[in-house]
Structure formats: C-alpha cells, structure tokens
C-alpha cells in the first residue's frame, strides 16, 4: 500500500513537473526564435583595398554575392574588373568601342542596363556576374592548392573554393543589343528604364529637350521565328526649338512604367502619368525640397521602384511616393512619407538594396548612413573620411561596398530584421502607396519588389473579433443552458443532456470549419434577411411563450410542470424560426430597399433600417429597465391583491406594450440619427462578405458552447444544496433562488468557464481558417472576414523561409497567442480561487 | 450512550448536569439495524415487530392533542423509490408550543419535517400518501402552490446556511423575494427579527458585512432570524444545533425557549437532553414509524412503552 502510494506520488509529481517544464520549454523555444527580431543592426568589421583611381563618378559599380569580384563601368565606357581580396585590377575592357555612351541606367539588381548615345540611339544591354563550377580534373594545377574560402585570379575572373569544396569561377558577362533608333538625332543626356510586367519601359531626355517614353515591343515572326525588337514611343514634352532647357538632375520611371518624374536641381519635379500611354499627362509640378537654400543633390528609387529617395545639399534625406488621398479616386499625387535622420553634409549617392527596403546614402563628408525606407529609421551610420565615388549594397545585404578615388572599402554589416522592428509590428506604418500610416499584415507576394508589411495588429484584431463574435453567440447560450439544466431540468434528464452537450465537443473543429464555410456561409447568404430577423423573433417568441404559460390556470400550470412545459419551451424555437423566415423578407422590403446585401454594400436604401435594427435591442433594454424600475413598483401596491390569472394577463399586456414601445423608440432614434446624417454602414455593419464574423460566431460559438456549458454546469451544481434549500425553504421560487443565490454563488465558476471558453476561442484555428475568409482587415463589421493569429500561423508558416524576419514574426505571433491564452487562463484561475476563498465560510 | 443520561434517575442526572457544557453527541453513527439486533434479544419486543414490518398502533397520549393544531399529520406515508420511509404517521403539532421529534438515526425524523414544507419535492424519487394540513389547508394535493405554502413556514437546517450576502440582506431575504423595496420596512423587520433571534446586539454595527464572516452559532441564529422574518405560521428546526459547539447550542436552546409561545416550533433533535429541555411535546420515531407521542414530561418520565423508556434513558440507540 505504502509502496503503491509512493509510486503514485512520484509519478504524479513527475507528471506535474513535466507538464510545467514542457510549457516552459515551449515558451522558451518561442522566445528563442523570436529574440533575434529585436537585436539591433551592427557592423561586423570593415576592410579596404587600394584600387586604381576611378577618374570620375562611374556609371555603375557592383559586387557579386560572395564579394570576391567587383566591376565598374566608367564614364569613358571602360569596364573594369577588380578582385576585391587584393584590389588587383584583373581586366579592363572597352565593350562599346569608339561610341561611348552618354547616359546609362541600371536595374536595382544590376542585370538589365540601358545606354543612351550621342547620336540619339539607345542600346539595351545585359551586364552581370556569371559563375561556373570548374572541373577539378581539368583545372590548372595551382588551383588545386586552394583551400576553402581562398581566392585566386584566373584570367578575367576570380576562382574561389566554396565551402562545398568545389572550385567556382566568377566573371562578369556583358552583352549589348542592337542600337534602337529614337528618331531624334539629339544626344540622349538622361535615361532611365523599368522592367515592367509588360516589358521594358525606357524614358529618355535628349539634348534638344525631347522627353519621351518608349516601350519595347518584341515581335516574333511566326514563319521565320525571327525576333524583331522595336520601340513604341510617346512624347511627354515636345522639343522646344532653339531654347536649351535646363538640364534636369534626373529622370526616373517607376517600376510599373506608370509614373515618370523629371527632377530638377532646385527640387522642382514634374510628375507625369502614363496610364494612357498614347496621351501622357502632367499630373503635378511639385517642389521636393522644402528649404529654399538647399539644392537637390541626389534622387533615386528604393528597391521596387516606387518610393523616391531625395537627398539635398543640406544633408536632408526624404522619401516620397505617389498615393491617393484616403477614400478618393483622384490621381495619386506625390506625398512625403518619411524624413530620415539627416546627414552632416550633402547627400551625394544612394544605393538601394536589391532585396529589401534598405537604402545606403553616402554623404559628401564620407560617412554612409543606412536607412529602412518603410519605417524611416536609420539602421546604421558608418563613418568615413573619404568621399565615395560609387556605392553599392552587396546582393546578400551583408556588406556596403564603396569606391573612393583610391580605395575600395567594404563594411560588413548585419542588419538583422529591420522590416520587423517593434514599431513596424505594433504601430501604424506608412507603406508605399497608402494615404496615411496604417496597420497592415501582408507578408509576401509573388513579386520580389514587394514591400513586406508585418503589422501584427490586424491579426490580433482578427483574433479578438473572432473571440468576441463567437462569445456573443456562444456564451449566453451556454450559460443559460447550464442554468436551465442545473436548476430547472428534471435530474433524470440532466445527466443525458449534459453528456449530449459534451458530445458536441467531440466534433473536430475542421469539420465544423468546413461545414461553416461550405454549408452555413452560402446558406446564410441566401437567407440573410430571415437569419437577421430571427435574432429578434426567437427571443420574442420565447418570451411571449413564457407570458402565455403564466396565463394558464394555476392547477394546469402545476400539473403540466414536467415534460409538457419542456415541450412547450422547445416549441418556441421552431415558431421563432418560422416567424423569422416570414418576417425577414417583409422587413427587408420595408426598410432595406428590397435587398439587404445591396443595402449593406451602401448601394441603396436609407440609413433608417440599419439604425432601427441595431437600436432595437438597446431600445428593448431601455424599455425593460424603465418598466422594471418605474412602472412595476408603482403598480405593485395594487396588483398585490389581484388573482393569479389577472396578474398574468396584465403582465402579458405589459410585455406587448413594452414591445411596441421599444419598436417605436428604436424607430424614433433611427429617424433622428438618419436626419442627423449618420449611417451605420461603415461601422458595425458594412459590405457583406460570404465568410464573415457572423458565420464564425455561429460555428465557433458551437465549438465553445460545450466547454463553457460543462464548466458552468459543474460550478452551478457545486452550489451547496443547503443554500438552495434555505432559499426555497424561505418561499423563493426556483427562478428567484437561481438568480439571487445560485448564480451569484457560482459566478466565479461561470466566469472562469467563460474565460476558458475565451481561451479556446482565441486559440481556435481550423474554424477561423476555413470560415473567416482570412482577410487581415481591421473593421468591426459583423459581415466582413478577418484573419486571426492562429489561422495566419497555419497559413504562412509552411511557406516562410526558415530564419527570415517573416518566419520569426510568425513565431512572435505564436508567442502573442500563447501569452493571450496563458493570461486568460491564469486570470480565470485567479478569479476562481479568489471567489472560492470568499465563500470558504460555507 | 453515557451522555444520553436518563432524566428518570435523579442521581445520575445530577452527576451529568455539567454535561451540558460538553459537546452533545449529535451525529449518532450507529445504524438503526444494530438497535434492532439489540431488541431482538428480547423476544416479542416492539422494535422487532417494527423491523419485521408488522402492524402496530402508535401510542399518542391524549393530553398532547388538546391544543389547537398548527400542523396536522394524517396517515402520512412516504416512499423513496420502492423503499417506504414513513409509515402511517398521524399526530398534530400544537400551536404556540415546541414539539420535538426524536429517534435514532434513519428513523425518518428529518424526512418527516422536510415533508411539512414539501422540501422533499426536490428529491426526484419521492412519493407520498396521506395528508398534512397547515392551519387547516392541505399541504399535499393538486393545485397547491408550493411557493405560497413555503412562505408560511420557516425552516432552519442542520448546518447553518447563510447566503453569501450581507447580514441585512440575509435577514430580509424573504421580503426581498416578495418584492418589498421599502427601505424603512426592511430595516424594521431586520431589527425585530435579529432581536427575536438574539443576534441584534452582536451584529447591529455590521449589518452590511458578509454573513459568512459570522461564527457558526451566530450564523445559525441568523438563519433563525431569517426564518422568523417572514412571520411563519410554523417554524421547522432540523437538528439546528448538530453542527454547533455546546456554548452556541446553549444559546440556541435559550432562543428556542424564548420563541416558545410566539411561534409554533417543530424541532428534530438527536439530543435527548435538548428535547427534554426545550420541548413541550415529544414524538419518538423508530424506523419510519411513530412509536409514542405525548407531553415531553410524560414521555421522558413515564412513557407507556418500554422501548421509549429504553431509548430516552439511553439503554438503546
């Protein structure tokens, strides 16, 4: 016996400690994954090598992923290759020959290049790193000696032994297409291009003032298979005869080929829109430089070619992007989104990261600042004493490489996860194209140029919305059912009813979810007016039934107190449903202009119907309180002597009058609100989406009913029999005993049942995943969808790159979820204990 | 059974008098069957007769029935499912007096007293026959409003059961459920009831405090105050002192003494001394039958049946 006891105790202790340990470990693991998100960016060290002088600011300077090789395209048309390890120039070629380009533009990633020439022609080229694996057997013998990470120069390229032990040769490839005629012999002095989904868009400015956009058209001859490339051009500004226009500081075309910006040195910018390609339109002329003394010194796109970075001679750096004003269909005009922490001297160079919204800005003093363009935060400041002539962000974003007049300096950086900074996760952020800072969750898209939006708020909001709507539906149902079974039902029925309700919990939530999404959601959409009407008719019919029951003669009521009454109660539900089905469409025709879905969409009807419907419960409450506290006490002295039947009839009359009064009150308030010009659409109700909070409320309500019901029923039946007997013995009715004694006593248990139901709703995944539409929007509209933390994790974690900011943010979401349920459950337990101690005198 | 001293023996009574200060033996754990065994040793005894389910006549002393009856019990029978728990009980509780129900555990005292205000309705399997009357009104029967009935009867239970609310609210509970909101009237009733229960002086300064903070004895007196606040026609006390210490028991007994005359009291007790001290009439029950009923003095000093004498003197039970 003793041994058994000891074994049992050991096992139980071990199990308990194990559970606590497991929960702690999960928490620690989540925190472990999340923690790097909050680390600040830092530099890992820098190195510089001497390099031959770059005469003037080159067209372009770039390095490869491993930073073994860098190429520079000089203004004189020379392509220079430098081995970064040694600073040795390993090749210097002149791919253009005699015809040196006047202007050039490169993609952010550096592969597509467009050159403008003095004779008015342009040529499209490809310049980029090429790598090949060398066969060890045929490779030169001196390469065999290379150990991992070591680099050797080999011809016009660099050979490196990779960590996998292979020999990899990196070199630069350069291809140049045929000249394309612009039909204008004037030199192309400014050029920019964008690789749009429909092809290449090139914007050119020629010396004679011709500003034109050309779209590359590729034609393939079906017979011969020959591909011909031609340009389709549109003039933005016709050349002005004789007058030499002021030369702009730069012209830029955005990533979609829709917006063209012509930026002048004083900050004046012409913003052209190419939505209608044949008729480009000057949208606006705007000054990007606030300070009249400052001159615009640099302008460039952030990765994704949408946001402009504007630097001026005073060191200020701003970001601008086109955005529509909130709620309008007007043209998207340039607005300043961020003002970065300024530098100490004029900003001279901007290099955008090819893989994120990070930009590097070089200042005249030699310092370089790294900014996160979306958040407007300065990530790092790197001091330097020599002005950079060319600047690039390494492809892996692990270094900034700058070329000064005599050196190539690379600074290794570790940016951590700037896009998932705390401010981005919880505060509204001004994302590209948005009229104002907002909370957005949009973690990934098909395009690499995508700006990740990692605001957790829409997900937290979605979780709360799901919880709220399901509790609104499930909690009253579960608690009232628990009270009914524990206090009013025959004890024989009680056990079977309880186990039936508990059976509800055994339905897998995925089944509930797809029934909700595929059966209930379309059905509710079809019969929406009836469903909405049932919210009114079912309670009304039930109450009417109760009053009707009171009107039965006393001896009948007493004799029928058993199963007859139960059946009568059960009958009120179908009657209420039928009433809803009948009245719903009538109501719809009367106040919702015949179609409630259209009405919700704001396409038709007045505000009256919506207000009336929303205010009806409130009006009913006001009337009920008024009757209970004002009318009833006044009548009590008289009604005390009445017969039971008279009282019942009078009460029923009072109920009907109250109902009419409530309807009148709601209608009056609705009229008033409509007259004031307020409309409920846009707040609690709005456009109807098939999978919405109402559906989730139904289905998840169904899922949390058993847990709340069971726990609440348990706590109700734990109320000491002595208390119940005391109350009944004092002549209280069952209902009075329940309201005054049993429910207050069991309140802690009911409350913790609610909290645990809440925790279940917060953590529920499959139902919301399937029935909530998964749109991460923040609106209280009962008829729109949402995305919860849990559903978001389920949807996105399988696709998130392990270790990425997105991945860690999803873990953070899990941590938030864990904390929410943990806090809820702890709070529930705390409340329960508190009350238990309070009632320990019994 | 040493504390169930026979009052018939003056010497022993004298020696046992201080026993009032000791905790009375209230939870008699001895099963009734063992009592039956004991009597089986004496062939032809009444207990054996009852145990075998044979018919017998209860002895009702005539001088117990002179007063006006507040509760009249006529041929009352009760079944828990298939088991009959009360057999043909007939006696009446006189108005303004204290009537005690005694008998060994399981004899049906509590069942009987709970039938008076139909508390047994709460038990699913209960079935009754016969009749009870409260001041002439039938307690059982179709069309009897149980709630109205219970409002006329006060009840105090074994264990103090104050409601988890303030002392004031506890006392005026029966008025509250009738919808009385007149503050003045409530306060008046509260004070008079608490005075009636001898609790006023102890709690008058903390009427707003939780009733659960009171001691066990105070709680029980609070329950009595709550019961008398409704001005009941009869007060049912179901072993009101069984969960209390001797001092608290003494106070309750004094209180019952004070209530005598003002209220009609039906009290169930395990404690022979208590019955003899507080009651005017006593009914002795055994295995669901009324054995003997009469004035307390008669029943304790000169009972008609030897079995009653055995029980009240503590030779059995």
Task: Give an overview of the whole structure.
With 842 residues, chain A is α+β, with helices and mostly antiparallel strands. Chain A is 41% helix and 24% strand. Chain A is built from 18 helices and 33 strands. In chain A, strands 6, 7, 8, 9, 10, 11 and 12 form a seven-stranded antiparallel beta sheet that branches. In chain A, helix 4 (457-488) packs across helix 13 (693-717), helix 4 (457-488) packs antiparallel against helix 15 (734-763) and helix 7 (528-550) crosses helix 9. The longest helix of chain A is centred in the C-terminal third of the chain and has 34 residues, at 805-838. Chain B is an alpha/beta fold and 317 residues long. Chain B has one domain: P-loop containing nucleotide triphosphate hydrolases (Rossmann fold, 3-Layer(aba) Sandwich). Chain B is 35% helix and 21% strand. Chain B is built from 14 helices and eleven strands. The interface between A and B is medium-sized, with 32 and 38 residues.
Structure at a glance:
Chain A is α+β, with helices and mostly antiparallel strands and 842 residues long. Helix content of chain B is 35%, strand content 21%.
CATH architecture of chain B, please?
3-Layer(aba) Sandwich
What's the CATH class of chain B, please?
Answer: Alpha Beta
Q: Residue-averaged pLDDT of chain B, rounded?
A: 80
Domain unit count of chain B: 1
Name the structural class of chain B: alpha/beta
Hey, roughly how much beta strand do the residues of chain A contain? 15-25%
Labels describing this entry:
heterodimer; A: about 850 residues; alpha+beta; four-stranded antiparallel beta sheet; B: about 325 residues; alpha/beta; Rossmann fold; globular; disordered N terminus
């Amino acid at each position: 016996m003793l041994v058994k006891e000891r074994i049992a105790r050991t096992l139980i202790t071990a199990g308990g400690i194990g559970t606590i340990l497991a929960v702690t470990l999960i928490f620690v693991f989540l925190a472990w994954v999340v923690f790097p998100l909050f680390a600040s960016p830092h530099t890992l060290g820098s190195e510089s090598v001497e390099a031959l002088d770059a005469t003037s600011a080159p067209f372009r300077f770039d390095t490869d992923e491993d930073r073994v090789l860098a190429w520079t395209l000089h203004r004189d048309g020379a392509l220079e290759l430098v081995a970064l390890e040694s600073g040795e120039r390993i090749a210097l070629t002149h791919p253009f020959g005699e015809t040196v380009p006047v202007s050039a533009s490169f993609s952010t990633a550096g592969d597509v290049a467009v050159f403008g020439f003095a004779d008015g022609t342009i040529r499209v080229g490809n310049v980029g790193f090429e790598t090949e694996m060398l066969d060890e057997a045929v490779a030169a013998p001196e390469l065999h000696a290379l150990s991992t990470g070591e680099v050797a120069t080999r011809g016009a390229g660099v050979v490196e032994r990779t960590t996998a032990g292979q020999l990899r040769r990196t070199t630069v490839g350069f291809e140049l297409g045929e000249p394309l005629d612009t039909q204008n012999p004037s030199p192309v002095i400014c050029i920019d291009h964008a690789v749009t989904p429909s092809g290449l868009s090139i914007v050119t400015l020629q010396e004679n003032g011709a500003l034109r956009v050309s779209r590359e058209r590729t034609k393939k001859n079906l017979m011969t298979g020959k591909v011909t490339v031609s340009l389709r051009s549109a003039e933005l500004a016709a050349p002005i005869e004789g007058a030499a226009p002021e030369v702009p500081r730069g012209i830029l075309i955005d990533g979609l080929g829709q917006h063209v910006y012509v930026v002048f040195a004083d900050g004046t910018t012409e913003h052209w829109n190419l939505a209608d390609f044949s008729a480009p339109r000057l949208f606006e002329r705007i000054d990007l430089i606030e300070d009249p003394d400052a001159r615009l010194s640099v302008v460039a796109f952030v990765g994704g070619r949408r946001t402009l970075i504007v630097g001026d001679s005073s060191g200020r750096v701003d970001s601008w992007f086109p955005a529509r004003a909130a709620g309008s269909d007007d043209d998207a005009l340039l607005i300043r989104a961020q003002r970065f922490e300024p530098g100490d001297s004029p900003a001279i160079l901007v290099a955008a990261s090819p893989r994120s919204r990070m930009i590097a800005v070089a200042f005249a003093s030699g310092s370089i600042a790294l900014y996160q363009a979306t958040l407007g935060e300065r990530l790092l400041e790197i001091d330097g004493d020599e002005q950079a002539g060319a600047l690039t962000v390494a492809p892996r974003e692990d270094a900034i490489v700058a070329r000064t007049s005599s050196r190539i300096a690379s600074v290794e950086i570790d940016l951590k996860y700037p896009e998932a900074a705390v401010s981005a996760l919880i505060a509204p952020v001004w994302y590209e194209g948005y009229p104002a800072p907002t909370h957005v969750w949009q973690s990934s898209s098909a395009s690499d140029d995508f700006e990740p939006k990692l605001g957790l708020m829409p997900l937290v909001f979605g979780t709360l919305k799901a919880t709220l709507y399901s509790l609104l539906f499930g909690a009253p149902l579960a608690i009232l059912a628990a009270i009914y079974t524990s206090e009013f039902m025959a004890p024989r029925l009680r056990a079977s009813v309880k186990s039936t309700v508990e059976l509800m919990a055994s339905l897998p939530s995925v089944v509930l979810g797809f029934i909700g999404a595929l059966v209930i959601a379309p059905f509710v959409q079809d019969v929406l007016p009836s469903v909405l009407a049932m919210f009114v008719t079912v309670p009304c019919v039930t109450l009417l039934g109760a009053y009707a029951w009171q009107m039965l003669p006393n001896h009948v009521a007493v004799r029928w107190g058993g199963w007859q009454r139960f059946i009568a109660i059960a009958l009120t539900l179908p009657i209420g449903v039928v009433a809803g089905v009948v009245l719903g469409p009538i109501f719809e025709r009367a106040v919702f202009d015949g179609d409630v879905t259209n009405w919700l969409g704001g396409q038709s009807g007045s505000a009256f119907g919506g207000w009336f419907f929303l205010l009806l419960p409130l009006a009913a409450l006001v009337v009920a309180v008024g009757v209970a506290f004002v009318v009833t006490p006044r009548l009590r002295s008289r009604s005390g002597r009445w017969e039971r039947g008279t009282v019942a009839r009078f009460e029923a009359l009072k109920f009907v009058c109250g109902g009419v009064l409530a309807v009148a009150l709601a209608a009056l308030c609705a009229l008033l609100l409509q007259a004031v010009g307020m409309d409920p659409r846009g707040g609690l109700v709005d456009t109807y989406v098939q999978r919405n909070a109402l559906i989730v409320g139904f289905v998840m309500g169904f899922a949390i009913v058993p847990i709340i019901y069971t726990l609440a029923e348990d706590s109700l039946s734990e109320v000491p029999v002595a208390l119940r007997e005391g109350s009944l013995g004092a002549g209280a009715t069952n209902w009075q005993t329940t309201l005054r004694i049993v429910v207050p006593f069991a309140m802690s248990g009911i409350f913790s049942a609610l909290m645990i139901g809440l925790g279940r709703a917060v953590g529920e995944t499959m139902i919301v995943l399937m029935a909530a539409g998964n749109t991460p929007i923040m609106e209280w509209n009962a008829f729109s969808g949402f995305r919860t933390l849990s559903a978001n994790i389920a949807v996105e974690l399988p696709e998130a790159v392990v270790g990425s900011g997105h991945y860690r943010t999803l873990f953070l979401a899990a941590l938030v979820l864990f904390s929410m349920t943990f806090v809820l459950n702890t709070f529930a337990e705390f409340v329960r204990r508190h009350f238990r101690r309070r009632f320990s005198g019994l | 059974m040493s504390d169930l001293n026979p009052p018939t023996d003056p010497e022993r009574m004298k020696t046992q008098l201080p026993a009032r200060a000791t905790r009375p033996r209230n939870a008699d754990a001895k099963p009734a069957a063992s009592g039956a065994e004991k009597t089986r040793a004496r062939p032809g005894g009444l207990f054996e007769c009852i145990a075998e389910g044979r018919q017998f006549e209860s002895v009702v002393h005539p001088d117990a029935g002179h007063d006006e009856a507040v509760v009249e019990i006529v041929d009352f029978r009760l079944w828990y499912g298939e088991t009959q728990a009360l057999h043909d009980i007939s006696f009446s509780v006189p108005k303004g007096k204290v009537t005690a129900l005694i008998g060994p555990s399981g004899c049906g005292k509590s069942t009987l007293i709970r039938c008076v205000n139909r508390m047994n309705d709460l038990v699913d399997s209960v079935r009754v026959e016969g009749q009870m009357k409260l001041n002439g009104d039938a307690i059982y029967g179709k069309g009897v409003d149980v709630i109205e009935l219970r409002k006329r009867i006060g009840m105090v239970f074994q264990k103090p059961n104050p409601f988890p609310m303030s002392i004031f609210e506890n006392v005026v509970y029966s008025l509250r459920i009738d919808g009385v909101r007149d503050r003045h009237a409530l306060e008046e009733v509260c004070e008079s009831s608490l005075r009636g229960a001898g609790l006023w002086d102890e709690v008058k300064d903390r009427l707003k405090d939780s009733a659960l903070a009171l001691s066990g004895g105070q709680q029980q007196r609070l329950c009595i105050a709550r019961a008398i606040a409704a001005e009941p026609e009869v007060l049912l006390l179901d072993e009101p002192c069984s969960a209390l210490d001797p001092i608290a028991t003494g106070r309750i007994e004094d209180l019952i003494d004070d209530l005598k005359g003002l209220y009609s009291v039906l009290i169930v007790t395990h404690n022979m001394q208590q019955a003899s001290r507080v009651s005017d009439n006593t009914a002795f029950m055994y295995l669901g039958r009324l054995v003997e009923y009469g004035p307390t003095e008669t029943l304790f000093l000169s009972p008609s049946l030897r079995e009653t004498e055995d029980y009240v003197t503590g030779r059995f039970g």
